[in-house]
Specification:
By secondary structure, the chain is mainly alpha-helical. The protein has 8 helices and no strands.
Length: about 200
């Protein structure tokens, strides 16, 4: 396994030269990381792999844009840069399929913010929470991930997905409400999902 900055730099340089061995090694090193990111946005394993592979193609095509000289921990910086590529690829995939996903369109109406309740999340594992998020509809899951996990504002989400700010807020509210219901069933406790900011 590659650990030092010099080894990672050599691998990056190999990828910049289209060296297949370097590309394969970088792919192997980042595959699990990439799968976890794509998995948050998509339920279907085939589509997760398709999005992930599209992200790797973009990484290899644009690796010359990665500025390793600005960072002390090159692997962490490369992962952060690649994460942005993957999230944007997930958004692109979502946009391509947004007109009809599982029979649901993005909602234009708004709902009330979820009521604050006692938390039962402390008894759930990270994997259980991610699985619960994956049960949300694609529209709700995408907005939830972009807002809660990626830290985008409603304005940024609206711009990225081509929806209104109100739709972003509505879908986040509905995602939280649905997530609360899913988690309540899993824990037999009332789950609290933080209200919209």
């Amino acid at each position: 396994m590659i650990e030092s900055n010099s080894q990672i730099l050599a691998l990056i340089e190999g990828c910049r030269s289209n060296d297949r061995t370097s590309q394969k090694e970088l792919y192997t090193m980042l595959k699990d990381y990439a799968m976890k990111i794509c998995y948050r946005y998509q339920n279907n394993l085939e589509q997760v792999e398709e999005i992930m592979n599209e992200g790797f193609i973009k990484l290899f095509k644009n690796i010359h844009q990665f500025e390793e000289s600005r960072h002390t921990d090159i692997l962490a910086s490369l992962k952060g840069w690649f994460k942005r590529i993957l999230v944007n690829t997930c958004i692109d995939h979502y946009r391509k399929n947004a007109s009809y996903i599982n029979g649901q369109m993005l909602s234009e109406d708004t709902e009330n913010i979820a009521d604050r309740q006692e938390s039962g999340l402390d008894i759930l594992s990270y994997k259980e929470i991610i699985e619960a998020i994956r049960l949300l509809s694609p529209a709700y899951r995408t907005v939830f991930n972009l807002f809660v996990i990626e830290g985008l504002t409603h304005e940024e989400i609206a711009s990225q997905l081509g929806i209104s700010v109100g739709s972003s807020k509505s879908n986040l509210s509905k995602a939280r409400e649905n997530l609360r219901k899913i988690l309540t069933k899993k824990t037999d406790h009332k789950a609290y999902v933080e209200p919209i900011r």
